[in-house]
Amino acid sequence: MIKAGMSGARINTAYCSFEDYDKRIEEVRNEENKLDVKIPIMMDIKGPQLRILTADPNVNYSIKQGIVFPLGFYEDSKELKSSSDTDIFLNYNIKDEIKEGDTILIENGTIATRVLENNGNLYVQVLNQGDGIIKNNMGVNVPGRYLDLPHLSMKDEQVIDYALKNNLDYIPQATQKKIKEKWN
């Protein structure tokens, strides 16, 4: 790819392990040496993602259009477990940012819900059947609502430490303020 004009390498940290990063960086550096060129490497920080968490990751929850179910909020300081109210949670506590009438989309919008009530848990109604199940780690989006999620996850911070220790060239601009606050 370098011979065809590649002028930089991007490592997407959303899908790899640190061992994978090592291998990719080594491949780029080896090719740099062979071809006597400099190829900058950028560590692309994943950032926060709103996701479904379930009390038991091995259990899928059947849904159908019109069903109403409670959606709780995971608190980082507590162990995730079933309560009398719900087995399904969001991975960030955003209860103060969600309003009745808001739409919550699950799994790229394949499951659309509407917030009927917000009283510590959200009570949401399924607007479409989607794929018929809700399971652990499905992605969530709340269109039209700004959510105050942390800019950097714990893994993001580990990736930044890794990038700095390995003298990599770039980390995306969106994280620069947080990097300066912590690493300067």
Q: Could you characterize the architecture of this molecule?
A:
- It is a single chain.
- The chain is elongated.
- A seven-stranded mixed sheet has the order 3-6-5-9-8-7-11, with no helix packed on it.
- Helix content is 21%, strand content 23%.
- The longest helix has 18 residues, at 18-35.
- It has three helices and eleven strands.
- The mean pLDDT is 84.
- It has 184 residues and is α+β, with helices and mostly antiparallel strands.
- The chain starts with 8 loop residues before the first strand and ends with a helix.
Reconstruct the topology from this structure:
Elements: E1 9-12, H1 18-35, E2 41-44, E3 52-54, E4 61-62, E5 68-73, E6 88-90, E7 103-106, E8 111-118, E9 122-126, E10 133-134, E11 140-141, H2 154-165, H3 176-183
Task: From the alpha carbons, calculate the radius of gyration and give it in angstroms.
Answer: 21 Å
Number of helices: 3
> Quick one: biggest sheet?
7 strands, mixed
Instruction: Please trace the helix and strand order, writing H or E for each element.
Output: EHEEEEEEEEEEHH
Query: What is the terminal separation in angstroms?
Result: 35 Å
Q: What is the strand tally?
A: 11
Strand content: 15-25%
Strand order of the largest sheet: 3-6-5-9-8-7-11
Round the mean pLDDT to the nearest integer and report it.
84
Could you estimate the helical fraction of the residues in percent? 10-25%
**Global outline:** elongated
Regions with little confidence, pLDDT below 50 for 5+ residues: none
Derived structural class: alpha+beta
State the oligomer: single chain
